[in-house]
Each structure stands twice: as C-alpha cells, then as structure tokens.
User: What shape does this take?
Amino acid sequence: MDGVGKFTKKWFEWAFQTSGMLSFCIFCAWIAFEIFFSSLLDSKSNERDFVKRYLSPEVTNVTFNDGYLTHRLIKMDLNYGITTVPIQQKALGNVNQFLEEVSNKCPWQDTDKGVFSYVACANERLHDIFYYTPSVDVSNNYAIHRSDCDTNTYLMMDALKMKGRYAYIIYAPGHAFLAWKDSFGNLNYWETTSGNNKGQLASLSDKLYDKAFERTYYTPVNDVKAEKIYNALIYTKSQVRVDIARLYNDNRDNAIISDWYFSARDEKKKITRDEAQLIISLLNTDFTSVDKKLAVVHYMMQHNQKENASVIFGTIPYEKCGRDCFVTGADMGNVVYIFFRKPFLIYDDFLRKHASGAYLNDFYGGVFFSISALIFGVCVLILPRRSFIKIKNSTENKNHSDATVA
Assistant: This one.
C-alpha cells in the first residue's frame, strides 16, 4: 500500500502541476486579450446593448435648423467634404429624433431642481438613440447612432437650448462634458458618457478629468466658440482643408486650436525657432499637450538637440502615447520602440478600423501578459512531460525490480 500511495501521490502532483500551469497560461492569455482590445470590446458591448433596445421611428424628420449647434456642425462636415448628403440626412434624422424624444418625454420646470431633472431625462433619451464609442466628426457618427463626450455635449446643449436655457461645453485634456448655470449663477457639471451615454453628475475629482493649469480647460465654452474649436478638431479629416493658420491667428489663446496648428506645422516640418521657444513656454501651463510636446521634440531632433528632445519626450505618459508618439520614440533610437515598431503599427491599424487607436500602456500590458502566457505555455509542454517520463520510468523500474525478486 505504501508503494501504491507514493505512486498515486506522484501522479496527483503531476496532474496538479500541469493543470495549475495550464490555468495560469490561459489566465495570462485572457488578460492580454482584454488589455489589447479593451476599447474595442467596450465599443462592441455598447453597440450590442444599443441594437437590442433601439426602436427606429416610422417617419424620419431631416429638417435643418440653423439654431441648433449639432445641425450647424453636420452642415460644416458636408462643406468640408467629411460627409455626403445621404449621410448628412441620416445624421439630421437621428439628431432630430433625439430632440423630439426629449421634447415629448422630458418635462421642463425653470427651477434648479427642474433643470437638473430635465438634463438627466435628456441624457437618458440620448442613451436610447446613441451608444458610446470614441468619435470625432459629428455627421458620420450621428448617422450610425454613435456619439462620445464632445458629440454628446453638443446634443445636450441643443436639448437645453430648446427650452431657452444656455449651456456650455467644458473641455478637459482629452475629454469634454456639459455645464449650465443655476439660479445663483454657479456652474453645474454633468458627465454625459456614463453608463453607455446615460449620464450622471460630474465629479471633477475623478481621474477622468485630468488636471491642467491652461485656462482653455475647465472654462465654459458657448456654442459659437465650440464651432470654432470644432473647425480645428476636423482639420485632418477635412477634404477641403480648414484654414488652420487663420483659425489659430484668431484664437491664439485656445490650447486646443493651437495644438492642431502646431501639429499641422510640425507635419510639414515648418516649425520655426521662435515657434519652438513659444511651444516650450506654453508647455509650462499646457503640460498635458502631447501634440505640442511632439512638435517641439521633432524640431529639436531636426536641429541636433537630442538630449533636450529626450527630456521632453520622457514627460509623455504611456496612456497618452499613441501612434505618432511611438514612431517618434523609434526615430529617436529607443531600442524597445524600434523592436516593437511594426507590431505596434499593425495593432494600431487594426484598432483604428474599429475603435480609437492604440496607446502604449495597453500595448505594453498586452505584450507583458502575452509573453507570460507564452512562457507558461512552453513550461506546460516541457516540464510536465519531463515529470511524466520520470514517473513512468520510476514505475517501470519498480515493476522490473518486483519481477526480479519474484
């Protein structure tokens, strides 16, 4: 019985070791997949949720109203060649459906409590018609029922405008949300994207709202100014190019517009020495701007200032380092960036077709767990097999010994 017990124990240990390593291998592979494709998985989940509940209207209202910010932005997309007339009509139809739903289902009382309830109800109607996914231009996304922080806020501003109440878009680094004034003249902040565009009160202490000293951020912006900023946001998408130089000259104090201006100058390698010095000065307060940092890094690299360029490049956090940032790191001679350049670009190309693009923190996290899964996968193939052979040989030797004794 003692021999049988030892034999059974060895096989049990082998099975436990193998299953444990295999489980950890699968776990690492699953974590890698979740990290690599988190943005894509979230968007697909939001889309599936939307498809289950959306009811298309029997009649589509495509009437254009110049008084609505969303309508003007949709028209701007058409003028700049970003969209087509059929898509413009679909976008107008979906926006008008939202405004009609708000008008029919959201009661209005011109009190602080009444406005709050109206905003909450309007955001629920937004959730009914648009699901959350990263977006830039309004028309091509509204047309297929997609909307994000900026495009949500435009819709909510129009919903409040229907009741004669002015609302504002508040820009934070990489984000935007809604604001309106209460009876005391103080701003109320509302996050439009929560719960797949259901919305909730904005808590500015949340990590979603990056802190910034640049006065462009966390300052209320009305619909007229929002239109000008939107001109800059669609610069790279426009077929008939936005006059970004004129836009910048008219709005030099706006960090978002200046980001796009310097990025455009950088793309054409036209950043001057004075502009580089200006960018460095602007970064004292606009320290979250990746576009400005990359523009001045590229200028420094072109003028043999690699050490200074490396210092500035090192201030870009991984979670904000996308395609241009990664390519810059490789061009600067960073061995890791060079080694992973092609895989990262393939990964980014894939995500751009479905979501918003790749960032370094997700890529590195996915690579780490992929390598971990690979290592444990190899271990599963090698170590348990060695243990299996050792146990088998031990069993055969024991049987041979028993036969000899007999």
